[in-house]
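Re: beginner question about structure tokens

> Can someone show what the tokenized structure looks like for a real chain? I only ever see the sequence side.

Sure, here's an example I had lying around. Input first:
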Amino acid sequence: MAITTIAGSDCLDVQDHDDTVLIKYSNAVDFAGISYDTGTEFSIRVPGMFFKERFPDENESEKLSDNSVDKLSGTVKSQKLLVIDAVPYYFHKMLSLILQHNEITIDDVLWVKEDTYEMRLVNDGHPFERAQCWLTQKEDGFFINVYS
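And the corresponding structure tokens:
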């Protein structure tokens, strides 16, 4: 019986001391040349880190005629920074497409890419670049307070 290869993967040396991030992704419809059936989920382990957090907020207020200020609303989002170690350009293109999916799961939490995927040059003579992107927590990560 002949062995038939139906899929391939990039080689990644994962050792105990290496920092890697497991990204699981899926989509509601076919995307980026991938046909998605109900329940189809893919995974990729990338060299990098995912732990730095921030909580950007937005506030809306109104100045009243008596020179006082009333707060109208306030929102807070939970975000984490996905940092990718130096990898080749094709890998960054693949990660950019992965982060455009509807369902992105890291550490059993759903995330949404709202910010730019930024690549950073290691040095002029190096064929790899590092990257980073802030991801927003999809569920239970957005808080809004509206005043009356």
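Each token stands for a local structural state, so reading them left to right follows the chain. The helical segments are 89-98.
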